[in-house]
Structure formats: C-alpha cells, structure tokens
Design a protein that fits this description.
1402 residues, alpha+beta, eight-stranded antiparallel beta sheet, 35 helices, 60 strands, 25% helix, elongated, Guanine nucleotide exchange factor subunit RIC1, WD40_repeat_dom_sf
Amino acid sequence: MYFLSGWPKRLLCPLESLEQPLHIQTDPQRAFFAVLFPSQLSIWYCRPSVLIVSYKELAKAASQFGPYKQAEWRPDSTMIAVSTANGYILFFEIPPARDKYLYEPIYPKGSPHLKGTPHYKEEQCAPSLNLEMKKVLDLQASITSLQSMLEDLLVATADGFLHLIHWDGMTNGRKAINLCTVPFSVDLQSSRAGSLLGFEDIYIRDMEYCATLDGFAVVFNDGRVGFITPMSSRFTAEQLHGVWAQDVVDGTCVAVNNKYRLMAFGCANGSVQVYTIDTTTGAMQFSHKLELTPKQYPDIWNKTGPVKLIRWSPDSCVVMVTWECGGLSLWSVFGAQLICTLGGDFAYQSDGAKKDPLKINSMTWGSEGYHLWVIEGSSSSNMKSARNTNNEARQFGILQFQFIKSALTVNPCMSNQEQVLLQGEDRLYLNCGDAAQTQNPRNTSAHSEHNHSRERGPFSDGSLDSQGLSTLLGHRHWHVVQIHSTYLESNWPIRFSAIDKLGQNVAVVGKFGFAHYSLLTKKWKLFGNITQEQTMMVTGGLAWWNDFIVLACYNLNDHQEELRIYLRTSNLDNAFAHITKVQADTLLLSVFRDIVILFRADCSICLYSIEKRSEGLNPTASIQILQEVSMLRYIPHPFLVVSVTLTSVRTETGITLKMPQQACEAESIMLNLAGQLIMLQRDRSGPQIRDKDNNPNQRKHLPFCAPVVLAQSVENVWTTCRINKQKRHLLEALWLSCGGADHRKPHSFLSRRIMLPFHINIYPLAVLFEDALVLGAVNDTVLYDCLYTQTSAREHLEVLFPFSIVERTSQIYLHHILRQLLVRNLGEQALLLAHSCATLPYFPHVLELMLHEVLEEEATSREPIPDPLLPTVAKFITEFPLFLQTVVHCARKTEYALWNYLFAAVGNPKDLFEECLMAQDLDTAASYLIILQNMEVPAVSRQHATLLFNTALEQGKWDLCRHMIRFLKAIGSGETETPPATPTTQEPSSSGGFEFFRHRSISLSQSAENLHSKFNLTKTLSMPSGPSGKRWSKDSDCAENMYIDMMLWRHARRLLEEIKLKDLGCFAAQLGFELIGWLCKERARAARVEDFVCALKKLHKDFLWPFPVIPASSINSPFKNGKYKTAMGEQLLKSQSADTFVNMEMDTGVSNTPRSRSWLGTISSSQREIDTVSSHGPHMQDAFLSPLLSKGDECSIGSATDLTETSSMVDGDWTMVDENFSSLSLTQSELEQLSLELASKGPHKSQVQLRYLLHIFMEAGCLDWCVVIGLILRESSVINQVFSIMQSSDIDGEICQNIKTVLPSTFIFILIPFLNIIKPQIQKLNEIVEEQVQPEAFQPVNPSKVPEQANPRAEESRTSSSHGTNPQSDAGSSNASRHEEDKAKTEDEDSFQEGSYDCVVS
C-alpha cells in the first residue's frame, strides 16, 4: 500500500535561531506547512521545501503569551490560529501577495520550457506571503486542543470548557460549553438521558472533528474516550450528546478517518484501539486494534510507552503511529502492518549495536501522502551538534520521509488489473517487465479490431500472452518509469495513475490534464496545446479500455463535468477525443468489458456502453448511457464510497440453466462503502427477454435488486472479466483484502456462495486469478553505516537510518483455498479446483504446503482435535501422482517427533518406499530410506537399502549409488545418526561416465618382453582419487564392506556376461570399482568371451563404431590383361595397422612426438626399408574380398550415425581379387574414396573409452577381450602384443584355443584385409596351441597410483612399417602417396588440436 523510499532528508533553515521547532502542520491544500517554535511561527512551501515567511514574537509579548503550543489552519488557508501556554489564541492572517514570488525556476538558454503557459507562476514559483497578527483572544485557561470545524474553531481548555469561535467573528460570536452539562451514555437509544461527567476536573486532552460522522472524537484527561455529536444544527450544551467507549480507560490521543468513518484512539499500553459508530444504535463499536506482537518484536513490543501521535494519510488508506519512546509504524486502514522502525536495520547497526529509536514531537503528511514531515524529539543528539554551527545554515530537526504508494489507494479501478503499479512523487514502478521483450505477436497491432479475446486481456486463452509468469515473478526489481519533467513541473503532484491490461501503456494524472507513456516506444505523449491541458481537471480517476483512455474530468472553461475518451495512438488533443457531458460531479470511474461505470456526487451510479468505431483515419470510441441507479437511500455521504465496479460474480438466485450466456454479463455492482462491501444484483424475477428479440441490449436495462452486504472491513476488491472454463472456480471469484483481519475469497460453487477466509504474509496489490498467485511489494532495508567511521559523521542520516527499498514479492494462495474446502467437506470441489491447477509449476509445492501446515497445527495441538483434517488431506493428496514426493518432502522438513502422526495418516513408510521402487522413482525412495532409518531397526534399513542399491546399479544412477554405499557402511558401523544427504539429480558427464580419462595414461606401444616382465612383476594402474575411491582404502576386511563388494561384483559379472562393456567402464569409473583385480579373478570365468561374433557386434553397437567398409571406387576400375586390378584399400588398411612391436623403439616416459610419423609414409618409404621388414616374415600371397555391384547395390561408408549390426558388405556378391603391386595405379577419385574410408572411424570419445578398456583388459590378462577390442580398433599392434604375451608367458591353453578357433573363421566377411595382415601371428598361435603349455596362475599386485596421460590416436605415435610382398612403386603411385601424405598430415594436425591426449610409454 505505502512503502518507504530511500533515506529521509533534513531541512536547512536559513534563519539563525537557538529555538527548536516543536509543532508542524500542513495547510488543508497541503501546499504549505507551518512550523511552530516557542516564540516564532514560520510558513514553508512544500515543493520545493523553502522558508517563505517567519514571524518572531517580541520578548515582552512572548512573556505575556507564553510559549507557542499548537497551530491550526483555516480551511481556506488564509488564517492560522496559534495557542499559547498562558491560554491565549493568536490569529495570524496570511494575505495573498499578488504576482510576487520569492523563488522562480531558471532554465538554460534554448530550453523548451516556456514561461508563458497559464498558471505558470502559481505552479512553478514559490509565492511571497506575509504574516500579520490579526487578533489575540484570551481564554483565561490552559488550552489543550485546537480543532478547525468548517467556519468555526473549536477550542478545548483545561477548565473543562469547549469554546466555539468564529474564524472572522468577534468575541460575541463565542460560545462556551461546560462539559459537565453534556450527557453521556453507552448509545443514543438509551432510555435514560445519560449520565453527566460529574467531575470538576474533567477536560478534553485531545479531539478531532469527523465530517462524515458529524461529531468529535475526544479523549479525556482521565483516559476515557468518547464521541460527541450535535443532535441538531445548533451547537449548544443542550443539543450535544456523547457516547462512551466502555473498554478504553487509558486513552492518550485520537485521529479520525473521514473516508472509512473510523476513530483511532492511542492508549497508554502502546496499542491503538479503532472504533466506528454503529449507524443503527449510535453506539461506539470496536473495529480492530493496532499493536506490536511479541512474535515480530520480542524486545520492544511491551516497552514502547504510550502512543504519542496518530496521523491518517491524505487518502485515508494508511495511518502513522509513534510512541513516547520513539519509532514510527505504518498500518493499513484495517490493521495490516506495513512498516515499523523499532526492529531490523532501523533498530540495529551493522555491527549489532542497538540504536536509540527516533523520538518524534510532531508529524504531518504532505501532498498525496508522498511525504511525511517529522519534528525530532529534543533529546536527539543531532540537535546539540547544530548549536555549535552558528555561521552555517541551521539544520533543524525537521525530517522529510519519502513514500511511494500503490495506485489502488487513489484509483481503485486498478483492481481489474493483474499488474502491480506503484506511484511515487516523480516516477512509476511497474512489475510487468520490459514490454518490448515480452510482447507477443498477437498483441502488436495497436489498431486491431476489438474482439472478445482482446477485450478479455492478455490471458484470455488461459495462458499468459503478453508476459509470462517469469516476467511477472522472475526477479525482484521494478521497471521504473520517470514521469516527464515538463508535465510534472506544472502539474505536480501526481494524483492518479493506471496501466492497461497488456502492461504496455501507463497514464498519469496531475493537477491538470494527463499524460501517457508507452513501454514499447519508451516515449511520453503530452498535450500539444497547453491550454487544453490546463483547463481540464480529472476528478474521478481514469482507466484504459483497449487503446483508449477513459477519464472523468471537470472543464474549467465551461464549468461542466465531462466524460472523455482519448485514443492512445493519435495526438493528445481534444479534437481527437470523444466528449460526453455528465450531470453531476464524478467521484469514481471504472471499466468492465464494454461498460463504463461512474459513481457521482449525487450518490447515483451511471452505466455507459462504449463502442469502437473506425471512421476516418483514426478509430474513435462512442459512448451511450445504459442505465442510472440511485443509491441515495443507502449511502449517507458520497465521500464514503471507496470503490465501485461491475462484475460477473453473482449468487445463483433466479438464474436458470436456460440462459447460460448470462454468466458472461455484468451481473452485479460491487460498492465498497467505508469498508462495507455492498452487492447489487440484477433483478430477474420479472419476465425475461430472449436473444431473438429485436433489442438485444434490452437485457442490460434490467433493474437491480436491493443491496446486500457481503463483507466488513474491506480495503480492496479484485475481480476479473475473463473466462476460462477449466478454471472457473478461480475466475468466478471475488477477492477481498481485509487488512490485518483476513484476506477473504468468496467462491461460486453450484448454488452456493461461500466465503473462505485465510491469512497471507504479504500485503496484496494484485491477484493472478488463473495462476492462483497474489502479487505484492515489501519494504527492505540496506545499512550503509559502515561507510562512516569518523566521529563527526555519526550524525549523518545515512548512519541513523538504513536505505529503504521496495521489492516485488508474491505468494501462493491455492493451498489455503483447498484446505478451507476440505474443512467444509467440499472435497469434490477441491479436487476439481486442484486438477484445473495441476499444470502450474508450483503445484507440488502447493500440496506440500497444505500437508505441512495441517500437520504442524494438529500434531502440536495441546488439546485433542475432535475432527482432525490430516487424514482428509492425506487422502486428497493421494489423488495426484506427486503423492509420494509430497509426503516425503513434508516429512524431511518436519521435526522427527511429528513423523508418527504423519505416517499414521498417510501410510507405512515401508509401503511408500516399495511404491517408489515400483514407480522407478529412486530419488524419492532414497528420501524414504532416511525416514526408515530413523523409524525402523537397522536390519530393515539395510534390507531396503540393498533393494534400492541394486536398482540404482541397474539404472546407472551413480550419484545415488555412492550415497547408498556410504549409507550401508554407516548402518554397518552404527553411524545411524548421520543419514545420507538426499541425492541430487544425476547429470550425464561430458565423457559418458569415464570421468578420469584425461588424467590417465594408456600405453599400447610396449614390446612383448617389456609387457611380459611388467605383467608378472609390477602391475600398475591409476585409479581415481576422488571421494568415491576412498572407500577402498580403509575397513577393507569389514563385513559390511564385503557385503557391498559382493553386490558390486555381482553387478560387474552381469554387465560382463551381457557384454555391456561401456556400462562396465562407467560403473568402474563412477564408483571407484577395482576392475583389474576383479577381472584377474574372473579371467577364466565371467571375463571369458563365449561368443566372439556377438561380442564384436555388441561393441560396435554400444560404442557407435562403424563396421569396416571398402569404397566402391577401389573396385570399379576395368580389368587389365584378364587379371583383376588390385584394390588399394587393402594396402591402406595394412599400412595403417601393421605396426609391429618387434621393431619398436622403446621410450620410457619421454614424449615420442619427434619420431611420430604418418602411416602413409610407408607407401613412399624406401624400397630397402620395406625389404628389410618383409624379410623377417614369411613371404605370402594375400587374398582380398570385395563385393560386385552388378545388382545396383551402393556401398555406403559406415559412420557413427549410420550403424547396422552387420556390415553393408555382407549381403553383396563377393569375388576374389588378385593382389598385384606391380600394376598399381591410383586415380584422383580413388584417392578421395580412400580418404573417405579413413574418416569412417568411430567417435573420438568412443575411441578413448575403447583404449581405456583395452588397457584394463590387457593388465588383467583377459587376452580374448583384448583381441576383440583390437579387431574393432583395427590395430595389428594390439594383436601382436597379445600374441607376444601368449608366446612368452604362461597363459591358459583354453584361452589360446579359443582365440585360435575364432580368429580365422568368425570375421571372414568383415575383416579379411585386416586378418591378412596378422596371418603370421595366427600361424604362431597354431604353434602355441599345439604345444599346449599349461598356464600358471598369477595374482595381481595392488594397483599403484601413477598418473599418466592417454592418447586416443596411439597408432600415430609409433614408427610405421608394412607387411606384404614387395610393391613396385611407379611415379604415379609415388605422387599419389605424397598427396595422401600431405592430406594425412593436415588431418593429424586437426585431430591433435581436438583433444589434449598425449601417449607415453609406461
């Protein structure tokens, strides 16, 4: 409602004076304020805050009159009455000085500001005033209170008299009434005349006149409070009657609220009792109380002292209270606390030291409530420092607090909007974000034709069109719009503001005219003709209707009330406005769909229809009157009407199912009469008019029934004009904000209308009906006192006060409604409502909040609850799929003592755990495990933990697995008091689960001898050293660890049997599983390859590795001399992979990059080198298979994205190609096909993973798996390494036999060229198998932590050599080879830049 902004300001006084101000009072127009000193009266101008005139009493007169005490302005601001301590009243006249000004604005040259505008002097210059003492009146008694009443001044004196003095009259116009003769009673209907006061020393301590109640609220010196009203127009003792407030005996001060007819009495106990007058009996009726609670202010709630001052804001929406001990607190009209300076950063410094509260002697509100002027108490230390600075301008203790307020306070038609709009003195705060970013294409056309969907605003289809929830709720900052300075200078202060339904345009109204701003174009539109602006004064507020601004104004030229409509897109000029004359002054204006509703000063309500017409260039809107409703019988004073609006909300009386279309119409008028919500419905008891009749508008002329009171203490009303059949429960509702009491929401269900009261923690400023959200704002503070450490700076306002900011906030209210419906046994309606909101992102939180609140209330209740709600709520939540998560989240956030009560209602946690497992919701099951750990014996926890652990292993939820390992160990070691944390959602790692590849070294370029010695003596392996690896370092012989190991071994065995090597690698890497040691044990059992074909296919598929493919161009050349032409692909395959270990130079630890050579170098290498290499191996003829393409089949190169289980070559026709190197020749197209084949490798990540697995299997001695991976990688070096191990070490004969049986026959159709390369090794294998060497079992040594680095392209880091017959290389092949070598070098450089993997020999 109202919010503090920034730091307060302190006024500088140009006059030297040793006196301190003691009283401050603004004039009725709030353009000036008077400051009273003990012997001086000063008049200040409000904007800018400058001193205009000061009257200093002469010493002789000052001693006669005594110090000044109070001041009161005449209603027309032409006189001030000042009371003194010795019982004198001094009347000062302020004669207007025409065309004399003390201060004028000075603009730079070339400035667009013009001084020739009408009212320029009055608006922009501080006038020159004179103060003349006109009259002195001696009442011969101490004056306790002054109060202006129309043309009279009411004075209370300490001798128990009430004096009525005319402002301009003589002493004969004075009336004195003895209070002892005024009868007092409990109410005005009392049969007895009423008891008199009956005491000699009774007098009025404080009083204030209430115009709408026509009487005085008074506080007597003995603490009693009452209300005195004249029984007739004559103000005499015989015609006065008083009523008591029976419950108040310690009153200190009083302030009245004219708009809501409330009297706020301050009490000595620090509370404020608010009363109203019962209109039927005339008795004082208690309304509510304003008091600090021990929950919010435990240190000071009962130490504030008596209430010192109470001041209502100019718009009567908030009240400011201060106490004798100091401090300020701001409350809404019905008791919602908004601000209090007795707690938080106001009361404590940043180092925790307590501050002294600000003591206040006097305070008064500025214009429109944007400022609060405050005079500090005399004990404040900053007064004393001011006495020492005689040469400088005096810093008096006058502070100016600045406020921003909701537009609802002055323009209640804002209640139809779903945006929060705050208005400050010179700026607007919007929560709708940047319209340019959130704009939807549907809403871009400013001239689009008016239709129902547009009419219902941005949420017509049930979704947020113009701005999403993220825009409304996404951050806590405001979109701040600075009001145009040209408009503000001549029209300050801003009185009304409004925002359109799309949140893209705002309009503001100042003293004269109006202006509007587009958030899309970031531009203001002002009247081009300044005279038109200055001759219209908006009286009843303004509202948006599509692209039109509707406002009620008074035409100063014609002295006529008018209703005007301006088009946003046209120039701001009366020529483009539609103007309708209105009979009486308009007080309030609101728009509902296509109807404008006016409330006028004669207590009548006018309904107008508004229609858009496209005539000429600019569309216009026309208005015609529909209906007039007189409320004179029901409204005692037109000023009491706070808001008026139309709504489709109605009771179901008289509505038949035959006319469902009537639900969309404006059914009822809602009138807030001084906090009393009154509803007027259409009277459908008479004959109904059908749609088929000639005049369809006739239905709108139905009369209204007599008014019905819906609610009391209503501050704001929200309704919506949109329709959504899915969420009709939310949309066909009325929101009532009732201050500190409750926030009530009546709902429409079938034929009943019910009221659902509930508390919310924020002050509501807007309601998002379809999203079940309340939007609001809240004050926050920031301390800057640490910036000022010097002693001289301690009195800075920045040190004394925190910096105040306003933040956006929101709150869900759906759980309150659901709970209230369940309390009323309306479960079916609650279910309908909940299902309609189930798609909201915070719906799970709604269910959790409801369960938590009911549980807390019932489980902590000291008395037994006859009809507990928790079982009903639990049953309700089971209707939703989020039931399991809701229960466990609620339990985890609730103390353990309440768990039994909770699970007695929702079910056994063991059953809920099993439901989670069945639903595959493992994270929720883990949360239930923590519940079970605390509620069950350890054996039950272990049993359920084992179930969850196995399931998590199967699903690859490694994070959860790590938690479960820790959990199981904790159970085993008795550490049940430290339950595991709730696992977070598992995120896939960038390396597919093998996190530590980049920190490992995998060396494949090792000689057979070196590998053999390392294999049998010192096995080394780098395992991850993260948290997951620590579990293997201690408690290894613990039974609990053995229990966990058994489960891990079982899972690893299953993965190996199902040939899920990729999953096995992830499993080992994520959980720190000692894979090598386990493989050594399982080498002859689970780690054997049973089906090589199946294993090969499965690995190709799992690692997205393409099958080998021969390019078609290599076999499409014509035959020559009856012999088949050689396919170059086989030569490339051979030279790519034929890297022998026999001729390998060993390099331990040193980078072998300098001797890294491209495998293509073998083609152009010297003949002598090839001869040397080939002489070591047997001379043989290689066979090569290639498909015939006679059937039109096209051969495609396999890739990682195009994989089949078998190569595309298999289904083709095959023929034998004789190898003949002497007739070798290459064309350019053949070279391109060859380079394409080189690109048919698998993904880089898969290559790294395969090499890692190869390293693991090699060290574990699982040679058959090494062969499979070597075949997939197509590297003869791997096969050579395997055979070298088999020759030189004791290897199981079965493994050798297995490899020998499988290799030549299994892959004949897939890897013929590659098998040709390793044919010598296969022959050696036959010899080994024939020898049948029996293996010796060897045990692996514990792995050592040696950090290494791996290279995925290991074959590039070795010297290359070739097996095969001696080729005769001609010039063509030599050139082609050089060309290929250059291309390969480029590829090598590219691949080297891709990954940072180095290969070193370990």
